[in-house]
Design brief:
With about 260 residues, this protein is α/β, with parallel strands linked by helices. The protein is built from nine helices and seven strands; from the N terminus they run αβαβαβαβαβαβαααβ. The chain has a seven-stranded parallel beta sheet, with helices on both faces. The chain is globular. InterPro entries: NAD(P)-bd_dom_sf, Sc_DH/Rdtase_CS, SDR_fam.
Length: about 260
């Protein structure tokens, strides 16, 4: 196999992308499909799932709240039916959580952020691992963390805490599953262009008492390349991590962020 061939994931991989109906998840799902994978996507947003299915009818879907263990069980029933097994899990679930000083964050908002951003990753990993262990196609588990999983993030403590925890989960699973040939890595996106980031910038601007435009410029000044990343940048990294070229990459937290210097 040439080096160029090593950069391409094997065709026919069976891939599950959680929270895959829009944003980063949808970009990852489409990229794997274009690379010849069989892809199943779950999401809480039925409208977004319907839109993805209309655009890419080969992608199968499930409606699920990833923070509910019973919903995740149903997703894996669907995966077994649609794919017959699993070679790749892209654990993409996550919400922004509340923005504000720690003393003003409501316990219910903290708990919801932990439920969605961290507990869901446990639910998906625990159900995917038995299937990944049965795979003969260099099985991979990719968890979506954040640049906030390596940097402190004032006014976003629930979000940052869960993203750091995902890195710990990934590094622990890499050790646990390495002897079975399952590779586990985290992708840490930086500031990603899109509607979700616009919402984050707006909320942080309001909390800081400045305009959204000024807050956007503040974000860009923190990035060495002075530009945000795109969902396709993240999808490309996911494809690479599932290619033969990455066969010895596991237990890593890989930033795709233009070098975010601080938050």
């Amino acid at each position: 196999m040439s080096v160029i061939d090593m950069l391409r994931p094997a065709r026919g991989l069976r891939v599950l992308v959680s929270a895959g109906a829009s944003g980063i998840g949808a970009a990852v799902a489409r990229a794997f499909r274009e690379a010849g994978a069989r892809v199943h996507v779950c999401d809480i947003d039925r409208t977004a799932l319907d839109r993805l299915a209309a655009e890419s009818p080969e992608i199968t879907t499930s409606v699920a709240d990833a923070a509910v263990a019973g919903d995740v069980d149903t997703v894996f029933d669907d995966v077994r039916g649609a794919l017959g097994g699993l070679d790749v899990l892209v654990n993409n679930v996550g919400i922004a959580g509340p923005t504000g000083p720690v003393e003003e964050i409501r316990p219910m908002d903290w708990e919801r952020t932990v439920d969605v951003n961290l507990n869901s990753h446990f639910y998906f990993a625990s159900r995917a691992v038995p299937l990944l262990k049965q795979s003969s196609h260099d099985p991979c588990l990719i968890a979506m963390s954040s640049v906030a999983g390596r940097l402190g993030y004032a006014l976003r403590t629930p979000y940052a805490s869960t993203k750091w925890a995902i890195v710990g989960l990934v590094k622990s699973l890499a050790i646990e599953l390495g002897p079975q040939g399952v590779r586990v890595n985290a992708i840490l996106p930086g500031t990603v262009e899109g509607e979700r980031m616009n919402g984050v910038i707006g909320a942080r601007a309001a909390a800081s008492g400045i305009s959204a435009a000024a807050m956007r410029e503040e974000y860009l000044r923190k990035i060495s390349l002075r530009r945000m990343v795109t969902t396709d940048d993240i999808a490309a990294m996911a494809l690479f991590l599932c290619s033969p070229a990455a066969r010895n990459i596991t237990g890593q937290a890989i930033s795709v962020d233009g070098n975010m210097e601080y938050l």
